[in-house]
Write a structure and sequence with these properties.
Elements (H helix, E strand, L loop, with lengths): L4 H29 L2 H5 L1 H28 L3 E3 H34 L4 H4 L2 H29 L7 E3 L9 H35 L4 H25 L1 H8 L5 H30 L3 H9 L14
Antiparallel strand pairs: 1-2
Helix pairs in contact: 1-3, 1-10, 1-11, 3-4, 3-6, 3-10, 4-6, 4-7, 4-8, 7-8, 8-10, 9-10
Length: 301
């Protein structure tokens, strides 16, 4: 393999992998849009948001990866916009998991008030708040950079988050926000899980529903672990930069991007969707291009 073929092959593999999961996410989104019940129930609205969010994250991450592989310079203003969306969608994932877990907690622990507390309006407000909180971290960096050096936003640069950082306090702030996000989400998931388990033991009439709910929250904890894997992506990149060998750094960075950042974000929505008894039959029906004789009803249990 020649020197130029190596990076090209890696780029093709990464792009193909991203395309496959984008197609899967698109089919899953179509599945959720195909039935009115999926468009009305808050848990499926939040699931659809997770799919769209991770798809945007995947596309933008691939775009920045391709730009980085080709050493392509772009205006700082455009780079800041890309980074803002990449970071926001990155932070959206764990917060969305927390909201989904709270929805299951309310459904089991407060069944009589579930429809009052959790509805389309509250789901929409939750999604809006998720985007606001997720954008604060890098939003502060972009605004600070604009205030200190507005002229630099016209300059071309290699797009990376480090180019937005001007002062050391921004690094501490960025890490502090990330730790706060994951500690808060973990606490919410554990709180929801414990309360659902307690409800399952005390309410004999809802044992089946509670059992499904606490398994769902356990799945959310597993998804959070995948998010944490993505969270350590930057830390691993920094450590790899100290290897001293540019070839070794490029190879290890590629593996890091593929298996730490890309793969976990792709698998998480797929696993959640295939586990759902209402979504799975319809999803498989559309994957087979409707060759099944009878279209599944998509009944919610």
């Amino acid at each position: 393999m020649t020197e130029g073929e190596g990076p090209l092959s890696k780029l093709i593999v990464a792009i193909l992998m991203a395309v496959v999961f984008l197609v899967i996410n698109s089919i899953m989104c179509h599945t959720l849009l195909s039935k009115p019940v999926f468009r009305e129930l808050p848990r499926y609205i939040l699931f659809a948001h997770m799919l769209c969010n991770d798809s945007v994250q995947l596309m933008l991450s691939m775009l920045l990866y391709v730009l980085g592989m080709n050493l392509q310079m772009i205006p700082k203003a455009l780079c800041a916009l890309f980074l803002l969306f990449v970071t926001t969608t990155f932070n959206n994932a764990p917060l969305n998991l927390a909201v989904m877990s709270l929805e299951r907690y309310v459904a089991i622990c407060f069944p009589l008030r579930h429809s009052e507390i959790v509805n389309q309006k509250s789901a929409g407000i939750s999604i809006g708040l998720i985007w606001v909180f997720s954008s604060i971290n890098l939003g502060i960096d972009v605004i600070y950079s604009l205030m200190v050096s507005p002229v630099s936003f016209k300059d071309s640069m290699y797009c990376s988050r480090q180019m937005i950082i001007i002062s050391p306090w921004q690094i501490d702030k960025f890490q502090g926000f990330n730790y706060l996000f994951f500690v808060t989400v973990t606490a919410v998931l554990i709180f929801s899980y414990i309360n659902v388990v307690v409800a399952a033991r005390s309410a004999s009439s809802q044992k089946d529903s509670a059992k499904k709910a606490h398994k769902t929250i356990l799945l959310h904890l597993g998804q959070l672990v995948l998010c944490v894997n993505s969270f350590v992506f930057g830390t691993i990149e920094t450590a790899l930069a100290k290897t001293g060998s540019s070839r070794l750094f490029m190879d290890l960075s590629y593996m890091n991007f593929l298996f730490v950042l890309l793969l976990p974000r792709c698998l998480s929505p797929l696993i959640y969707g295939l586990r759902d008894d209402a979504v799975r039959p319809l999803f498989l029906y559309y994957v087979r291009c409707g060759y099944q004789k009878v279209k599944p009803s998509g009944t919610i249990h």
